[in-house]
Structure formats: structure tokens, C-alpha cells
Design a protein that fits this description.
- This protein is of the alpha/beta class and 301 residues long.
- The chain is built from eleven helices and ten strands.
- The strands form two sheets. Strands 3-6-5-4-7-8-10-9 form an eight-stranded mixed sheet, with helices on both faces. The protein has a two-stranded antiparallel sheet with strand order 1-2.
- The protein is globular and about 50 Å long.
- The termini are far apart.
Length: 301
């Protein structure tokens, strides 16, 4: 692994990294991640509510990385409500665990509800910051960060292996414009970011929640946009992508109904696939199943 570049000053300091056996770290106790399309089919309403309740209280969740992502960063701010993600078990590799141990103090952000200054986060008084919600393993995030080093990417997810993988990629590629945020994106949007602080929002292949009774859990909803809009500066780009056609139609309906946004492709509705968005794992899986991938590009008026 390459030597990590010296990062700019972060919002808060963290305790020194404790030396830990990487092999022991590789044994997963429990991690959280965004639900994939296959997972959503098997999750019942009761299962999701039960997991959401544990996520709120922190019951049964352990801090495996003393200087890494917290199991419950927002604490009491995470009130009981319908969520667009849920917790599930998974495994973390030695390399991912080592990246968290080495880089979380400098590049990690806990979504704990405390005010966040993007300028301090990226070492620039007025940085163009793009928020990405749900980055999976981070491959596309790292590629876009490398292609546009002048833009800071605040990437949010609750998937610990993905957090470690993105940190490892940032280290390997020498990226200084990526910050990995741990926790509920709603807490970030509602409580932490100042108005007009974002130059863009990216939501690529979110959980489609295909069952009708789960549609209320989809991320792209009017209430979600009501939180996002004040945070977007004029000209900011909202970019969504999905391979689930009914969800694509819902996204288009919700985004088009927002008077503060303008569709870049009003005649077509959906945008042609942009070259700057790398192919993701979920996109490849969707295409292999014969799904149609839809991109939506809207601009903040």
C-alpha cells in the first residue's frame, strides 16, 4: 500500500490509533450496509422495524475499531422512523480493517448531529462538495474523485467493509478529496450541513424496495428533497441512477415535481448515461439481468 498523503485538518481530533491484530479485526461481529435488491425481497416489515429499533438504541452493536466508525454515531438523534436502509451481518477483510485503523481519524466523519463545516473538512474555505449517499464498495466513488480532484466528495454509507475499501482506495490512489461518512444521511442533511453548502448530490442504485408495501422506504421522496434543496447551491447537480424501472419512474416524478429543480433533459425525461459515471457493480448486475439502467440529471435553480 502506498504512503498516505497528508490530509487537511479535520473537524475534530480523535484518539491515537490502537495497534490491533489485523487477523482478529478481519473476523466480523456485525456490520451495517445498504440493502441490495436481493436483500429487499427477503426482508419483512417486522424484520426491518426490529433492526431499525436496534440501530436507534445501539443494542447488540459493538465498537470493533477504537478509532474507527462508531456503531451508533447519532445516538438519541436517531429517532424511530421509517428508514431506507437496515442493518445486516457481513465480513470485513484484513486490508479493509487495516485501512480503517490507519485512516479513519483523518478521513472519517461521524454523522453524530454536530454542525459540520465542509470548508474545514476539505481544507478549503469554499470547496465544491458533492454528497454521495450509498457508495457500496466505493470503486465508482474513488474513480470519480480521481477524475475530478478539485471537487470534494463526502461519501455516506453504513457498510463497514465498504468504508474500509474506499479508505484503502483513497490511500492507494493518493486521493485527498474523499471523506467517508458513517451513519444516517438524514442526520447529516437535517442537522449538520449549512445552507447552500453542496455542489451536488449523487444517489446511485439505491435500494429499490420493490414490494409495494415497502415503497415508503425508498430514499427519493418529497420529504427527502425538502431536506436536500436548502443545502444545494445554485447550479448544483442532482444525479440519480437506478436499474429498477418502476423506481426510475418514481424518481422522475418526484424530481420533476420539485420547482427548485430543472431537468437537464426535459424532452426525454431520463438522461443518457453520462461518461463521467463509472460502471458500478449493481449496474453490471442489473444489466446482466436484462434491466434498463436510467440516469436522471437535475440542476438546482
Amino acid at each position: 500500500m502506498s504512503t498516505s498523503p497528508t490530509p487537511p485538518a479535520t473537524r475534530t481530533s480523535a484518539p491515537a490509533v490502537r495497534e490491533t491484530d489485523a487477523v482478529a479485526l478481519a473476523v466480523a461481529v456485525s456490520v451495517t450496509e445498504a440493502v441490495t435488491e436481493a436483500d429487499a425481497e427477503s426482508v419483512t416489515e417486522a424484520d426491518t422495524e426490529a433492526v431499525a429499533g436496534k440501530a436507534v438504541s445501539g443494542v447488540g452493536r459493538q465498537q470493533r475499531f477504537p478509532s474507527g466508525p462508531a456503531p451508533d454515531p447519532a445516538g438519541s438523534r436517531e429517532e424511530h422512523r421509517i428508514r431506507s436502509f437496515h442493518a445486516r451481518r457481513g465480513r470485513i477483510t484484513q486490508a479493509q480493517a487495516a485501512a480503517i485503523e490507519r485512516h479513519w481519524e483523518a478521513w472519517g466523519v461521524e454523522l453524530d448531529g454536530a454542525p459540520l463545516d465542509p470548508g474545514a473538512l476539505f481544507g478549503d474555505p469554499e470547496p465544491p462538495v458533492v454528497l454521495e449517499i450509498g457508495f457500496g464498495m466505493g470503486d465508482a466513488t474513488a474513480a470519480m474523485a480521481a477524475a475530478d480532484p478539485a471537487t470534494g466528495i463526502l461519501a455516506v454509507d453504513v457498510h463497514t467493509p465498504g468504508q474500509g475499501n474506499l479508505l484503502a482506495l483513497a490511500d492507494r490512489l493518493g486521493l485527498t478529496n474523499v471523506r467517508v461518512a458513517n451513519g444516517d444521511a438524514v442526520v447529516l442533511l437535517r442537522d449538520m450541513l449549512p445552507p447552500a453548502s453542496l455542489a451536488g448530490l449523487r444517489v446511485y442504485f439505491p435500494d429499490p424496495w420493490p414490494k409495494a408495501k415497502h415503497h415508503k422506504r425508498r430514499l427519493i421522496q418529497p420529504d427527502f428533497l425538502a431536506m436536500v434543496l436548502p443545502l444545494l447551491r445554485s447550479g448544483a447537480v442532482v444525479h440519480c441512477a437506478t436499474d429498477w424501472e418502476p423506481y426510475a419512474e418514481q424518481m422522475l416524478e418526484v424530481l420533476a415535481a420539485e420547482p427548485g429543480l430543472a431537468n437537464r433533459y426535459p424532452a426525454e425525461g431520463f438522461a443518457p448515461r453520462p461518461d463521467f459515471r463509472p460502471m458500478t457493480k449493481f449496474e453490471r448486475q442489473g444489466l446482466a439481468k436484462g434491466h434498463i439502467v436510467r440516469d436522471l440529471l437535475f440542476t438546482r435553480i
